[in-house]
Amino acid sequence: MAVLSRCSRAATAATTRTQTATATFSCILRALSPSFCSSSALNSETDLSNKKPAVLGTLKREPTGRNVQWVFLGCPGVGKGTYASRLSNLLGVPHIATGDLVRDELASSGPLSSQLKEIVNQGKLVSDEIIIELLSKCLEAGEAKGESGFILDGFPRTIRQAEILEGVTDIELVVNLKLREEALLAKCLGRRICSECGGNYNVACIDIKAENGRPGMYMAPLPPPPQCATKLITRADDTEEVVKERLRIYHEMTQPVEEFYRSRGKLLEFDLPGGIPESWPKLLRALNLEYHEDKQSAAA
Ligand code: AMP
């Protein structure tokens, strides 16, 4: 913690906000990543093609006790939160969703809250500086609790964020979740959150018929348990207009991040075949984690 406090003080003295955020982030990630200075299992020479990231060949099948540093990319509504949180439980590492950090800040009526509300409710991206500041605080709190490793969800979302992250830690693997465009909007509009426990549910029933040689796709609703059913809320940015803007911004600002990691041989493309029962076992297989597949799919 002393190191972190020193870093924070040094960062405060830095001349620009960007330098401040970067310096703090750097120190925190360095503290989290013992292998920060060592050479990576994956580097830009390892695999520049669009094959499976080389790290997958070296993963242990026994998932617990692994110190992973993974990122989940994908359009709004694709299910990053669902699968990142399941993997976080399976692997015993924190799931850090920057969207949740932003919403916590919004709810806190802190100094940033009114500024953030306008940006988020219009479906725009929060500035890189603010998001790195929120992420740094979260990592600092995790470090104080003895956490290490992470699954990032919703970060990085710009090339600049990706460059900062790449400069301070060694991301092993980036999972790029993909879902048919026609399902994304419906999934966002159907999303419901329990205002008490924070559980995520979905009332949408997606049933895309097979057409022109493309297979159909069925995704069952994910209903809340009875204790949550009367406490459901909808995110303010899950309206049709705002979701369309978030999708547009994803294509403009975040899609280039896919190429950033693809060119470094870290990107695993994963097309979701349907809902959780079909997708979760396939994702585990793609991650070479099939060892626990049966137990987990039974829990889906
Ligand atoms: P999400 O829950 O991931 O959909 O994020 C909700 C909102 O939080 C986004 O629409 C952005 O306004 C903001 N946000 C989350 N993560 C980031 C990020 N990495 N960079 C900029 N803005 C973000």
From TrEMBL:
It is an enzyme of class 2 (transferase). It comes from the Eukaryota. The keyword Kinase applies. GO terms for molecular function: AMP kinase activity; ATP binding. Keywords: Kinase, Nucleotide-binding, Transferase. GO terms for cellular component: cytoplasm; mitochondrion. Its EC number is 2.7.4.3. InterPro entries: Adenyl_kin_sub, Adenylat/UMP-CMP_kin, Adenylat_kinase_CS, P-loop_NTPase. CDD domains: ADK. It catalyses: AMP + ATP = 2 ADP. It holds the Pfam family ADK. Belongs to the adenylate kinase family. Monomer. This is adenylate kinase.
